[in-house]
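Could you help me review a protein record that somebody else here produced? This is what I was given.
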Amino acid sequence: MKSSIVRALWLSFIMIIAGAHGALAQDQSTGPMSDDEVYQELNLFGEIFDRIRDEYVDAPNERELVRAAIQGMLTSLDPHSGYLDPNDFEDVREDTQGTFGGLGIEVIMENEVIRVVSPIDETPAARAGVLAGDLIVELDGVEVRGLSLDQAVDKMRGEIGTDIELTIVREGRDDPLNITITRDIITFRVVRTSVRDNVGVIRLARFTGQAYAGIEDGIRELRSEMGDDMKGLVLDLRNNPGGLVDQAVYIADAFLARGNILSTRGRTDDENTRYDANPDDLDKLIADIPLIVLINGGSASASEIVAGALQDQQRATLLGTRSFGKGSVQSIIPLGENGAMRLTTSRYYTPSGRSIQAAGITPDIEIFQDVPEELQGRDLLIGEAALDGHIDGGTEKEATTGSSVFVPADPDKDNQLKYAVDLINGVETNEAFPPKADN
């Protein structure tokens, strides 16, 4: 009797969740299931849950069973959907605010191991030598295989000042590499500015809640410092893994007076949105200033929104190597005291209608770095297209070759930055700078 009551309550709960949050599972060979078929599948789930509770060799933690089932359901959709328990949800909120504890790396799950998308500038991971494209296979000697992405991230976080050993596999290296990193509070400046040969350089490390404010301050400071001597601007988005979409829209708007920036398309009308630029004092301040945007294989998501908008609107020349190709939008849906779910709800499209999902953005000018011999071949990242279960983009061919993520620490050895500055200064040709679009 007890099992039957639990199963009935469980099925009611599942049906409420399914009705509230949309798409139910589909058998691709037969199309969408009927309501009766859905209920049969849910009944099977309830039966298995009851058998585990009653017959497993040790009494299971039922809460963990339910959350593992939810996690499995979400992670089966694509690499970016997942369940966030209350602690993970709080970590996400801290992350987007720009201050959090941990190592300082942006990661994704790939073939049951952790792939580093990008180490964050001036963090413990970056200082310890972790590189974009590294595969983390063990954490303190414990295999990553079998962990969810959120579980692995949780293990990498910890008490400030404590050490963790990452076992890393790098392409082209025969033996795994063990790197010990001391955890620290990750508080970093998302925007840094510099001047090279009368060219303002703005480095944006991540799209946190402070990104647009940092870009605005950087533009105004550079304009005030150089005045009419400013010959151009370089916006460096290399190895920027993305972040908040609204910040990407604000930053693209900073360089555009009008025209489309971004549109999103999903299954429901609520997910179909369009974002357009509006004239303001900031874009007037740099309206006649040539702009180059630097991208590479580690430039993802919000970075690709900005780069794609400025490329399509002919406001900037893109220089570097192909971007990562993450063109999907994840909504964080709070679940009260139970945390939240991260669900892919739409794809985003550049002004010309391109979906960059699994394809990335190709720069107008492809420039390669002089990669040190010991890193050659290991600096390449295919990106989104290499992730198991990724959704397709629909408008562009998927990437099949790797794109470099290497950026030298010494700006004097940075071929991409040097080429951009030379181009602005007329060492090559200024034909790369079309007039600002009027549409």
Q: What stands out?
A: The chain has three domains: 2-60, 99-187, 191-432. DSSP finds eleven helices and 23 strands in the chain. The CA atoms of residues 223 and 230 lie 7 Å apart. Residues 2-60 form one domain.
